[in-house]
Amino acid sequence: MRTDNPTIYVSDPAHQRGAWIDATQDPEDIRLEITDRVKTEEYTIFDYDGFGPVEIREYAPLDVVSRVAQGIKEHGNAFAHWVTDVLGSVDYLSEPSRFEDAYLGTWKDVEAYADSLIDDMGWYAVMEEHRIPIGYFDIKAFARDLVLGGDIAASEDGLEVHIFDPRI
Length: 168
What we know:
The protein contains 7 helices and 6 strands. The protein is an alpha+beta fold and 168 residues long. Helix 1 crosses helix 2 and helix 2 packs across helix 3 (77-87).
């Protein structure tokens, strides 16, 4: 099943009855839908879809599942990458609002982010003013140093790179 929203497939413990449920709902609404559609209060999350790289465990708390799903619905795949590659796990998702402060944007690659940062800081203008050739500056090395120095966290999703400030 593929939808625009993250979903979970919830089944009874014997896996005889189950249903796909919109995970972007409030936890209580998810719980009510499980009781109504799966006819049980004991359940396992058997499958999930639309969570990107986030791993949802069988017995993940519904409040955590809901927060992750709502973050993905609001911010897209970058939120999922923030959860997995910056926070490290859904277990550390206490304040989803921190994402907005930490997210620096999505770029073609880390070098493109570094190039934009240099331009925003006015370094290119200074180099031009002092007649320093632009090619003199090693963008790849600067981008690598940003990552290795902990100034940014970069998470690739195959097509682009999501950049975050890991200190937030």
